[in-house]
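User:
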Amino acid sequence: MTAQPHEPGHRPTPDEIRASLRDDRSPRAIRAALPVEDLDAFDRQYREAVRKAGDELDLTPLHECVETWWRHAVLKADPAEYVQMIERAEESQRRADLGEPTGGIPWDETFEARLRSKAHKGR
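Assistant: Predicted structure:
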């Protein structure tokens, strides 16, 4: 299954969108999977990456653009899930800004030492 424009009025399910993007990571497939409100930004950034890649004779900007937008399309495949993810991230950031625990593991010297020890031992 490849990402194809769908029939007018048919919104593919999040699973259909994600499956299509697993099989086809082309700019055309990514664009077909994006929500309508993201198309102008995708087009603008993609064209800029193509121009830059041509000017610099380096495909890195183009690959980075395509990868970024592929992730964006996968994340936004389910609009409600995407909104919830953003809300959780904003709440975590708000709590972190206030110095409150965010539920993650604190990064301190002790934690870093344990990680380095495990990496050194090959665990």
